[in-house]
Amino acid sequence: MNTIKLTKRHARKVLEVVDAGLCSGIGTPELGKMCVEAAVCFALGMPHGDDPECVGSAVRAYKIRLNDARWSSDQARAKGLRAIAVAQLGSDTIDQREFAKRTAVKTVQVILPIALRAAGALTPAHKSALESAALECESIVDLAGARKAAADADAAYAAAYAAAYAAAYAAAYAAA
User: Fold this and answer.
1) Per-residue pLDDT tens for 79-138?
2) Of 19, 81, 86, 90, which is closest to residue 53 (Cα–Cα)?
3) Euclidean distance between CA atoms 112 and 147, whole angstroms
4) Who's near 53: CB < 8 A, 6+ residues apart?
5) Which of 30, 35, 139, 147 would suit a FRET pair with 106, their CA atoms being 20 to 30 Å apart?
6) Is residue 78 exposed (0-12), middle (13-18) or buried (19+ Cβ within 10 Å)?
7) Angle between helices 57-68 and 96-106 (to 10 degrees)
8) Of the candidates 63, 34, 58, 61, which has an alpha carbon nearest to the alpha carbon of residue 46?
9) DSSP label at 34?
10) Three-class SS of residue 82?
11) Residues 6+ away with beta carbon under 8 Å from 73
12) Is 26 strand, coil or helix?
């Protein structure tokens, strides 16, 4: 458990630091040149690092993945992670396993269908299979269902990706 008594002042300071920009990777302790977790450490007066004491381990791992994902710019990264940078404060007091479970289920229910439908728009021959996978993802209710739906979605996406890759290769070969 954290030893800092978190206040609105801390939250405002986190927002101020995040608004300066975020980078992929831990970065350096300079405004605009650190990851979201390092930004929290900086804002709370902790040593430079990516493990703020008031953030739970599962929440931290999730945030690091989000931070280090491909963003269009460091400003887009900061804007996209702004609210969750504050929401994570005090997360060391929640059940980390439950957080991870709920995050996995919601990711499969909400995010994966978006990606599958986007892939379907790019591969018309596989659009129906990808839409079916998206619908399966949206209907899950628990972790076991999320695992199965994610595996099924992976298989549908792999088939579509292989077809798209083959088509691109054939087009490049024909043009050469």
Assistant:
1) 999 999 999 999 999 999 999 999 999 999 999 999 999 989 988 888 999 999 999 999
2) 90
3) 12
4) 2, 3, 4, 46, 92
5) 35
6) buried
7) 40
8) 34
9) B
10) helix
11) none
12) coil
